[in-house]
Amino acid sequence: MQLLEAIRTRRAVKNFDPSHQLSEQEIRHLLDHAMLAPTSFNMQNWHFVVVTDQDVQDQLCAASWNQPHVKECSVTFVLAGALKGWEDMSKQLRKAPADVQNMFFGMVPQLYANNPQLERDEAVRSISFAGQHLMLVAREMGLDSCPMIGFDAAKVSTILGLPDDHPPLLMITIGKALQQARPRMGLLNYEDCVSVNRFGNHALHGEADDS
Amino acid sequence: MQLLEAIRTRRAVKNFDPSHQLSEQEIRHLLDHAMLAPTSFNMQNWHFVVVTDQDVQDQLCAASWNQPHVKECSVTFVLAGALKGWEDMSKQLRKAPADVQNMFFGMVPQLYANNPQLERDEAVRSISFAGQHLMLVAREMGLDSCPMIGFDAAKVSTILGLPDDHPPLLMITIGKALQQARPRMGLLNYEDCVSVNRFGNHALHGEADDS
After folding, report:
1. How many domains does chain B fold into?
2. Could you say which of A32, A166, A208 has the minimum Cβ distance to residue B199?
3. CA distance A179 to chain B (A)
4. What is the CATH number of the domain that holds B87?
5. Of chain B's two ends, which shows fewer C-beta atoms within 10 Å, N or C?
């Protein structure tokens, strides 16, 4: 599938065929491309929990205000941040040239130590980049997805056994759509959310093209 | 360009042709697709500052530890969060059915009011989804990109006149590459960052396919 078609046709779908399953190969295909998303310093500060077990999906559904797609999708991906991913970067930098290794090993602890807000921002950023890949690649596979934050993070952590430094930051359900998404609810205009060279300088006008 | 090729060939590039420029049409093409990224409740809690002016790029470069690609790229995108995007959703929901409008108008303030951490998480998530679209679409246009957080947020806000509720959360430089990215520095294995059904259950093995 062409990139632009994937972007244009990706919509949040909430009605999935509960009998549809993904093979291990298909799950690996999704993960392989998710893991090519960029992260600061190549930190890869993420953890993907692939939930295919119906009982676990049922529990996640109960922890997500009973949204049915959480248990009816083929796979429920829970994307957790690895908040301490910066502490040991030896695997992430194992193929880097020595000068890059030295620079990164010097800079990274200075930036992240004692900076829990940056740790969290960085985790949200990384898992969102990866999540966007998951959703687009699902489209390419003829599947649909729904990104969601409507869950009780403490309950999800308990259900999945996530450690404290791996908060669940995003859930993405993926499956075979039974029903297409509704029409878009309303895109903002350029004037609402685009500036040129300085905030408030609206040199571009009109509504974004959602065709 | 095929989606999978865009994902596989997108790398952080830091050497751009300083003489290369983007037309307004090309900039709109990038923005149009960035703005199709998903956001919670269709909030679109983002603001894109498109920096093409060389003087402003030079100032941003100085506020980014003098990383040359910030001033040598064709366009420097500064993605700011719109932290209060939830307060007035009338434009975002203008085409939604009445029952959806009622539900969202009821739920959104309950979730976001007095929850600054959620406001920030949500902004980082939204701008990261949109940023990933920008980077992939740049690839499709024969361009390259570099996502970065290595800047002084306070200085960037001053340079661009960003209000306090619009923090800069991500910068993406886009341009014509003069030099390709180095080989990947090291992908984590599945065992490092993937679990199946429960954290620590490593039913999938091996390194992600980075070919």
Report:
1. 2
2. A166
3. 17
4. 3.40.109.10
5. C
